[in-house]
Amino acid sequence: MYKKIALEMTGFLKECPTAFHAVARIGQELECNGYERLRENEKWEIKPGGSYYVTRNDSSLIAFCIGTRLSDYCFHIAASHSDFPTFKVKEYAELEVKKKYMQLNTEGYGGMLCATWFDRPLSVAGRVVVKENGHLVTKLVNIDRDLVIIPSLAIHMNRTVNDGYAYNKQVDMLPLFGGSESKKGDFRKLVAKEAGVAKEAVYGSDLYLYNRQEPSVWGAQGEFISSQRLDDLQCAYASLKGFLEGREEHSVHVYACFDNEEVGSGTKQGAGSTFLSDILQRIHLGLGKTQEDYYRAVAGSFMLSADNAHAVHPNHPEKTDAENCVYMNEGIVIKSHAGQKYTTDAVSMALFRNICEKADVPVQFFANRSDEAGGSTLGNISSGKVSLNAVDIGLPQLAMHSAYETAGVQDTCYMIKAMKEFFSTRFYERNGGIFLE
Predict the structure, then answer these.
(1) What's the pTM value of the predicted model, to 2 decimals?
(2) What is the mean pLDDT of residues 189-213?
């Protein structure tokens, strides 16, 4: 079962070279399960028992399934993110070198491990806005072949590279696109061909490099999986599966997949935007509830902020806390931080541990070394817009932000089971206690 789920996930990952493709793929899965697409600029007609989804910027998505017994309801929310560190192609994309080479002019998106991008086949995908019949239309593109490589500088020309090197993204990280026969305009022509239009019809683009290397299940017992984009599409995939399998009629179930987590979430489609609060309030208004009902619903709601966590590195166990450290294939990670980089507190931790206990899923606990700064994630950012109980969780992995990351085969299945249990469980408060049923 574990390996079957892992292999199914690799198919999902291969179809999602950018956040735009990930959201499109998730939308397809939702529609196959009876979800109706809504648009933010149109009037909504929603009803109890209905299932809906909406996108923003084509790179963030929120789906929701409305229960049928909503006299005293709350929101059950699972949040993940669709983006990952990569390189964005600039508008004027080509750089000529001595009339012998053509490079693509790129800039870094997010905090990637630069060294992992060298000497491997890459390509370009994203979205373009084209003019067709007088209308501006958005199209997804994926040049589905080995297109560019970022070549390393030979050690003979940089003898101290293995002693440590600071990569310059404008010098060292530019991909090689063509040889002496290439000319400026060829790249846009190629992108336009992929979109099925003339290059003059392309009016805008958001294009990114992606790693072409196939995902791999490996290890002595086939216990590991390596792929691009595990952070955070592994959680996005597992959360979606659990969301679709779980059902509880006293709540509104919400699946959120935000863009731009890797650059701070401060965009119109990020976790720091109004996207989540806008959708929750529109659901509430569409159900004919009062503002007082909304505040009560949010107060009783719960969010799982799902973003991957650092497993103990076999070569560097000293980089993690001596006790609050995690390992691949040993369960879901609960993350906590005294400085509130993570939202976990005693209440949210206890609730999620109960969920996992009911699902027969093991849990682990992660905290940073006290002398190391850690990153933040979706939970504490989104809680600035919608204040509710939340726990930060994730799946353990190695080489986070590499072009090719590694995780445990069993852990995806653990997350699916926990998410299914979460969306099948009713929470309510009574006499100062929290009850789960």
Answers:
(1) 0.95
(2) 96
